[in-house]
Automatic annotation (TrEMBL):
Keywords: Iron, Metal-binding, Oxidoreductase
Molecular function, one GO term: metal ion binding
Name of the protein described by the UniProt record: Fe2OG dioxygenase domain-containing protein
Residue ranges of every copy of the Fe2OG dioxygenase domain listed in the record: 174-284
Organism: Hydnum rufescens UP504
Amino acid sequence: MSTLPLVSITPWLPTSSGPDNDVRRREISQALHSACVEYGFFYLDISDFVSLEETTELERLARQFFELPQVEKDKISISKQDGARGYQRLNENVTQGKPDSHEGLDFYAPVSDPNPTRPLWGVNQWPSVPGLQHQYEKWIDKMKQLGLILMEAMAAGLGMRAEEWLDLRSQVDDSFWVLRVIGYPRLPDDHDGFSCGAHKDYGCLTFLHADPTPSALQVFRTTPKPDGTRKGEWINADPIPGCIVVNIGEMWEIWSHGLYKSTLHRVIHRGENYRVSIPFFFEPNFDALVKPLPAALRVQEINTRREVSVSAHPHEMGQMKLYTPVTYGEFLLKKVGSNFGTGKGKYD
Ligand SMILES: O=C(O)CCC(=O)C(=O)O
Ligand SMILES: [Fe+2]
C-alpha cells in the first residue's frame, strides 16, 4: 500500500536562512508541485513551526468540550446562530445521503457586520471550557500564517512570476477560513455508514491535525493503467508526529486548471478510542475571483488566447475539463444554501 509524500515547510519559514536556503526552497516547491499533481494530498512537516505541546493542548481542550453533557454542548448549537458557526450533534451532518458518525464544533472568519439571520454571517460561539478560546485563537493565527507561507511555496512550484504571486496572494490574504473540531466515537460494527463519508474539500488548502489514531482517515489514490484508464485504491493517511496532513480543495483545482486534483477522502474509525481531529480550512478571501492561473496554463501548454469557460462544476470537453471563474463567497453560499435547504452535509 502506498503512502502520501512528505514535504518539510522549514526552508520556507521566514526564520530560515543560510547559503543553500534558496536551493532548498526550490526543491520543496518542486516536491509540492509533484505531490499536488499526483496525490492532491501530502504530509507537511511543520515541526519547526508548531510545538508538540500546542497540538496536545488543542486535543485536550477538544476532548474536554466533547465530554460535556449534551445539554451544555447544545447551548452553542449552530441553530442558535447562522446555521454554520457552533456545535453540531452526532449524526447531524450528512454526506451523500448518510449521517456522518461524528460531532463537531465550527468556527469561521469573523465578519465586520455580523447578522445571525444571514447564512455564515453570525458570530462564533466559543464554549466555556477554560483556556479553549485562547489556545484555538493562537492556532488559527498560526494556520493563517502557514497558509500564506505554503501558498508562496506552491506558487513557486507552479512557476509563478513574482507579480503573479502577488496577485494570487491578494486573493487569500484575508482568508475566509474555517476551523472544525471533530469528535468521532467508535463506529458501531453494524453501522453501514462512515465516520465521515467520502468527499472532496471545496476550498483552497486543508491543514489537518488529528490525534494519533491509526487507520481512520483514508485517501482515494488513483494511478494510470496501461490502457489509459485509471485504477483507484483507498490508502491510509495515518498521523505522523510533527506533521499535518494537507490537501487541496476545489479552488486549487480551478487555479491550476485541473493540474492539481481535489482528492476524495473519508473517515472510518473502528478503533476503541474517541478520535479527535482538527482540520483548519485555509480558504480564499470571500470576494476572491478564482480562475485558472496563467502559470498553470503555461505548464499545461494551453493556448491562453483560447476561451476558457466555466462553472463551479467543470464540464468535460473532449479529454479536457474546462474551468470557469467563480467568486469564492458566492460559491460557498450556494453550497451552504443548498446543504441547509436539503438537510445535506457540509461535505456534499
Ligand atoms: O477527520 C478527518 O480526518 C478528516 C475530516 C475531513 O475530511 C473534513 O472535515 O473535511
Ligand atoms: Fe475533508
